[in-house]
Every structure is written in structure tokens, then in C-alpha cells.
Amino acid sequence: MKLDVSHPVKAVESAFEHPNPGLAFGLVAAGAIVWVAQAFAIGGVADPMLVAAGVIGAFVTFIVLAAIVFIIGKLAAAKEAKKGFSAVVSGLALMQIPQIVVYILSIPAFFLVFPNGMPSGVNTAGGDAFLVAAQLNNAIVANNTPVNWTLLWALLAVTFVIGVYSFYLLYLTVKRFTSRGALGSFITAVIALAANTLFWALASEALSMI
User: Fold this and answer.
1) 1 lies in a domain?
2) CA 95 to CA 108: how far, in whole Å?
3) How far apart are CA 8 and CA 178, in angstroms?
């Protein structure tokens, strides 16, 4: 299993020809650790319970996504489905690499975009990315913090491109496993990602009620 995602087709092919579940879950763990480091570096606060929930959630959502793709492949009676769950896990784990790059780049980029650091009124302790984004937006609209707009738009553009690239790795994994055509693989990848996102949203809501 090769980790050189600069050649995505070869990387996914390698994951299927030489699956390595241990390395795959190692990438998931690395992604979770870097995410925690990013949250702490930017916000300076980290609730241990919420951090633990986030790390566990990273593994659970990864396994759920792999299970969705695996089940679709089995239902489609794809010839590659015989390679088993380990091949799917190995292919999907490659998505962690561009995501880790985003986490790392966002740390120095944040302090360049917001020279004075985290604006007042923004609470990162909860670990809710959507809430933090909303609070940041309110601070910007209210002109409570100086913003380097050029770098902000550049950061958003880079994040978008890497996000699309990460989805492309998902698409390639689905296409390789299900043996579907380009359109079928794209639709399947969108459905799998949407189902996984819905699962995480429902799980997060359920946990918040505990």
C-alpha cells in the first residue's frame, strides 16, 4: 500500500493490490491527533471528553463509511468485492492524507488571517466546527477583529481544492471496488458520503443529549 496520493489512481490501485488495514487505521489515528493539535493550537482550549468523543468519532465514521461502500459493492456483486473489507479500508484511508495537510496548513494560516488571534466571543472548547464557523462569521460581520481577506479567500480556496481531491480518492475507491462506470461510481460515492455525514450528525445529536 503506497501513500503517494500525488498519483491517486496508482495509490488506490496499490491499496487494493496490497491492502494494509493496520496502516489504514494508523492514518485515521494520525488524522485525529493532528485535528486535536490544530484545535488546541488555534483555540488554546480542549475539553478532554469532547476530544475523546472526536477521536472515537473519527474511527466510527471511517468504519461506517467503509461499511457503506463495502455493502454497496456486495449488493452490486462486484468482482472486486471478493478482496474483502481490508481493501476498502485501505483505499478510503488515503483520504486522511489530504485532510491532514489541511489541518497542518490551517494552524499558521489562521494566525495570518486573524493577526490578533482567536476573536473574543468565539468558543472552540465545544469542538463544534459549525458553531465555531458561525461565531467567527459573527465576529467578522461585527468588525470585532481584523481580517486579512486575501489570505482568508486563499485559505478557503485551498481547503476547497483539497476537499475535492479527498472526494476524488473516495470516488476512485468506490469505482475500483464496485466496478461501476464513472457516473455510477460518482453517484455511489455521493450517496455513501451523504449517508455517512447523516450518521455522524445523528450520532452527535444523540450524544449531546446524554
Assistant:
1) no
2) 22
3) 17
Residue 207: band (very low, low, confident or very high) from pLDDT cuts 50, 70, 90: low
Measure the CA–CA gap between 1 and 12, rounded to whole angstroms: 8
Counting the structural domains of the chain, the total is 1
Say how many C-beta atoms besides its own lie within 10 A of residue 150's C-beta: 10
Mean pLDDT, residues 151-156 taken together: 82
| Total-model pTM | 0.81
Here the cell at position 199 is 450518521
- Please check whether residue 49 lies inside any domain of the structure: yes
Question: 99-128: b or e for each residue (b if 16 or more CB lie within 10 Å)?
Answer: bbbbbeebeebbeebbeeebbeebebeebe
The domain of 30 spans: 8-208
CA distance 169 to 167: 5
pLDDT at 81: 56
Mean pLDDT of the chain: 80
Alpha carbon of 38 to those of 30, 34, 57, 100, 109: distances in Å?
12, 6, 17, 10, 11
Asked if 58 and 52 touch (Cβ cutoff 8 Å), the reply is: no
| Residue 2 counted as domain residue | no
Distance CA 159, CA 106 (A): 9
Q: How far, CA to CA in Å, does 77 sit from each of 39, 74, 124, 179, 180?
A: 42, 5, 45, 9, 11
Look at residue 82 in the predicted model and tell me its pLDDT: 57
